[in-house]
Design a protein that fits this description.
Order of helices and strands: HHHHHHHH
Number of strands: 0
Number of helices: 8
Number of domains: 1
Strand content: under 5%
Largest sheet: none
Structural class: mainly alpha
Radius of gyration: 17 Å
Length: 198
């Protein structure tokens, strides 16, 4: 009984500690109509791939990945406000639907955050802070095994155009946005699992 009160309190204290260091209230870049249309198409594809079996966590993941992909394509940034709001919503959804998994999911978010931070440092700026925080929220929604599998598949998909640009000599120093590949990996998970991977 006390466990169910302790974990949300721990998460809330963590958010109180972390959020002052995150510029949540900075204004995200505006999306023009074509980018908003792309966002709607991404969400519709995600929902169609999940079918009627979509859970609240799955729908929240679809919003997270679709919005992050469009912002990363349009402005090469994943807004802190978007990530913070969706992280808080994720905690609420998990508390309502999978309370017993709360501690494991929070730990998965921390592990994904640490792993991506290490990769970001090793990559010398190839991964942005938004990509790192995006993967932490993915860990929170999916758990450690599925979250890391999704991130690994995202890197594999990213390697395809990266190899092409290196071999063709068209962009050895080119930085590709990471979030669209995370969205594509999520769509593959949706399609291959029939919407049952959460």
């Amino acid at each position: 009984m006390y466990y169910y009160l302790f974990v949300p309190l721990l998460v809330a204290l963590g958010l109180v500690f972390i959020l002052p260091f995150v510029p949540v209230f900075s204004q995200p870049p505006r999306l023009d109509r074509s980018k908003l249309g792309l966002l709607v198409v991404g969400l519709l594809l995600w929902t169609a791939a999940g079918g009627a079996l979509s859970t609240p966590r799955q729908l929240l993941l679809g919003v997270l990945l679709s919005a992050s992909a469009v912002y990363d394509l349009a402005a090469r940034v994943i807004p802190n406000r978007l990530l913070a709001v969706l992280a808080v919503l994720a905690v609420g959804v998990i508390y309502a639907s999978a309370r017993s998994d709360m501690l494991n999911l929070v730990l998965a978010a921390v592990v994904c955050l640490v792993v991506m931070t290490i990769l970001g440092i090793a990559g010398r700026g190839a991964l942005g802070a938004g990509d790192v925080k995006l993967c932490a929220v993915i860990g929170l929604l999916l758990g450690l095994d599925t979250g890391l599998a999704l991130i690994a598949l995202s890197f594999l998909l990213l390697m395809l155009p990266a190899i092409y640009f290196v071999v063709s000599g068209k962009g050895i120093k080119r930085h590709l946005p990471f979030a669209p590949f995370v969205w594509a990996a999520g769509m593959l998970f949706q399609v291959l699992s029939g919407g049952r991977f959460i």
